[in-house]
Amino acid sequence: MATTNYDQPLRRRAAIQMGYVALLALFVLWPNLRSAPSLVLVVATTLAAVWLIGGLAAWVRLPRADELLLCGSAAPVLLGLTQLAYRIDFLRIHGALTRPGVATDSAAGFIAVWAAELVLVLLPGVAFLWWNARSLAPLQPNRPESANKRT
Predict the structure, then answer these.
(1) How far apart are CA 27 and CA 29, in angstroms?
(2) Per-residue pLDDT reduced to its tens digit, 75-94
(3) How many contiguous H segments (helices) and E segments (strands) does the chain have?
């Protein structure tokens, strides 16, 4: 079966996203599920599975696979926003970075992990969500054109 010009960007987009979701599952989801499972992690893992299935469906050119890609790409956004809220709440409750006497190594580690979460999870998640939303195929009406006209 010959690939059309439309198929190449879709397959490239699917391949990039399948690679990212594999890395996300390997380095973020799996270790956290093993050490401290939570409802957010289970939902994010389910969305990541939908994302992977959508990537495979797009790779084999199944119709409406782009909708699965869009739904699944919410996984890193969900994780990133949850972690952002947890870290801001931690700062609010403990005032860890504003109290005198806090070790600078722990504050630097806190900021480094927070920056890594933002750069490696939240920002790519927002980018993939935007990319998938912009790439949605238009809906094709099932009714004939003459049925859409009012008389």
Answers:
(1) 6
(2) 999 999 999 999 888 888 87
(3) 8, 0
CA torsion sign, 133 to 138 to 142 to 147?
positive
CA distance 65 to 50: 10
pTM greater than 0.85 = no
Phi, psi of 135 (to 5 degrees): -100, 5
Q: Tell me how far apart the alpha carbons of residues 149 and 125 are, in angstroms, rounded to a whole number.
A: 41
Cβ-proximal residues to 17 (8 Å cutoff; 6+ apart), any chain: 51, 55, 69, 73, 128, 132
70 vs 81: CA distance, rounded Å:
17
> What is the C-alpha separation between 89 and 150, in angstroms, rounded?
55
What gap in Å lies between CA 17 and CA 23, rounded to an integer? 10
Tokens of 17: 């996203």
